[in-house]
Design a protein that fits this description.
Elements: H1 8-21, H2 27-39, H3 43-48, H4 56-70, H5 75-79, E1 81-84, E2 87-90, H6 100-112, H7 122-128, E3 143-148, H8 154-162, E4 166-172, H9 175-187, E5 194-198, E6 213-218, H10 225-228, H11 233-238, H12 252-264, E7 265-274, H13 280-289, E8 293-299, E9 305-311
Parallel strand pairs: 3-4, 3-6, 4-5, 6-7
Antiparallel strand pairs: 1-2, 7-9, 8-9
Helix pairs in contact: 1-2, 2-4, 6-8
Length: 315
């Protein structure tokens, strides 16, 4: 690609060939993504503008992206963001990249919360009216949620974005994650309802919220140590081991989460945890032994067991 004019088509073909030689598992998809990002085009626009020449600046940006991808760096770290459910969050090295299966965790978590109250229709109010002055409707109580091991904040921000009554305490022990989660909450206009706390698991959740939480959600480190040896290079080489290693059976953190949830959830409050597919049956047994009810296992988009949910009994 040393000729004077790089068209989008020529740049795409060159990038695909380069990434193929570097062992990229899906070189065409990677090339489309990087070219889109370098040129500020959607993937559809890339294909509609094959003859458009790249500027010198776009060429330099693309070269840098392709070099990083050729070394195995994840696409999301290169582009700096990822779509997650209904939001887009910033990502960067040192913090785990949100995964599609974690969207299932958010679905399960939201299903455990009371639905958003619907405003009464004006016609209903008129029919019920008897001439007496109306009592002003009191504002509904916020729903208190703790998202432990928040990482990028994608779970905390999604829950706050999708449920207007949710007030979320998002915790993480890694300074890089705390900084990024704060940025994402701010960028999404959710900083008034997502409070990011630097601490280990639930230690920094405000004392007045402990025992009053409606929901605890977590995507903790859960990969069994032996499985870590077989994970793809771009995960092992670039993503933080602290956010992945769940100990010998993958349940080290869960064993600490369950007793904390027993104290922190209000009666009838619920939890939802993402765990490794090999660990769900054991984790369900641990949850039942810890006194939780309605314990169930939900499957991810590929049909694998992925999410454990349960409730603190009401009485």
């Amino acid at each position: 690609m040393e000729n004077d004019i790089w068209t989008i088509k020529a740049a795409l073909d060159w990038t695909v060939g380069y990434l193929e030689r570097k062992g990229d598992e899906n070189p065409r998809l990677s090339a489309q993504w990087l070219l889109s990002e370098a040129c500020g085009l959607s993937r559809i626009e890339v294909y509609a503008n094959f003859e458009r020449p790249l500027s010198m600046e776009e060429r330099d940006v693309l070269r840098g992206y392709v070099t990083r991808r050729g070394r195995g760096e994840p696409l999301q770290y290169i582009t700096g963001e990822v779509g997650f459910r209904h939001i887009t969050v910033k990502v960067r090295p040192g913090v785990l990249i949100p995964r599609p299966e974690t969207e299932v965790l958010v679905s399960e978590a939201l299903a455990l919360l009371p639905p958003t109250p619907r405003p009464r229709a004006k016609d209903d109010e008129d029919e019920e009216g008897d001439g007496a002055p109306e009592e002003p409707e009191s504002a509904p109580e916020p729903l208190l949620v703790a998202d432990l091991c928040t990482g990028s904040g994608c779970i905390a921000c999604s829950i706050a974005y999708e449920h207007p009554l949710a007030r979320v305490f998002a915790t993480d022990i890694a300074p890089e994650a705390v900084a990024l989660a704060c940025e994402n909450a701010e960028a999404l206009g959710l900083a008034d309802r997502v409070e990011v706390v630097a601490c280990d698991l639930g230690e920094g959740v405000p004392a007045e919220a402990v025992g009053a939480l409606d929901l605890v959600v977590s995507n903790p480190p859960y990969v069994p140590t032996a499985v870590l040896a077989d994970i793809p290079r771009e995960v092992a080489d670039f993503e933080p081991a602290l956010a992945l290693d769940g100990g010998e059976d993958g349940l080290d953190v869960l064993r600490r989460l369950l007793p904390w949830c027993a104290r922190a959830l209000k009666p009838g409050g619920a939890f939802a945890f993402e765990l490794h597919e090999t660990c769900l049956d054991s984790s369900a047994s641990l949850a039942r032994a810890a006194g939780f009810s309605d314990v169930r296992i939900a499957r991810d988009l590929a049909g694998r067991p992925r999410v454990l949910t349960g409730r603190r009994p009401s009485a």
